[in-house]
Amino acid sequence: MYIYYMEPLMQVYNVLKNEYEEGSHQVDVHEIHHYAENVHSPEVDKLYQDDAVWIISSSFIIFTMHSGFGLLESGSVSAKDEVNIMVKNVVDVVFGGLSYWSCGFGFSYGDYEPWRNPYIGFGKFFYDPTRDYGTRESINQEGWSYASFLFQLSLATTASTIVSGAVAERAKLKSYILLGCIVILIQALPAHWVWDKEGVFYKKGVVDFAGCSAVHMVGGIIGLIATVYLKPRRNRFNEDSVHQMSSPTNALLGTFLLWWGWFGINAGSVWGITGGRWRLGARAAVATIMASIGGGATAITISFVKTKKLQVNFLINGILSSIVSITAICAVSRPWHALVIGSISSVFSIAVLPLLERLHIDDPVGIVPIHLTSSIWGMIAVGIFCEEDKYLTSATNNMSGLLYSWSFELLGVQMLCTVTILIYSAATGFLALFLISKSPLGLRVTDYEEQIGADVIEHGLAGTNVARYVLEKPLSTRTFQTVTKAITKWKMLAKKKSRQKRMEAAKLKRQEEQETYAQSNGVANGTPNGNGTLHHRANATNGTGPPKRNSVAGPAFNNQVAPLVTTPRNPTVRRAESTTIEMEVTEEAGPSNAAPEVSPVNSKPGSAGSRKSISITSSASTATATALSVAAPDSRPSTASATSTVSRKSKNSTLGKFVKAPAPRALSPPLDPDV
Question: Whole-model pTM above 0.90?
Answer without folding.
Answer: no
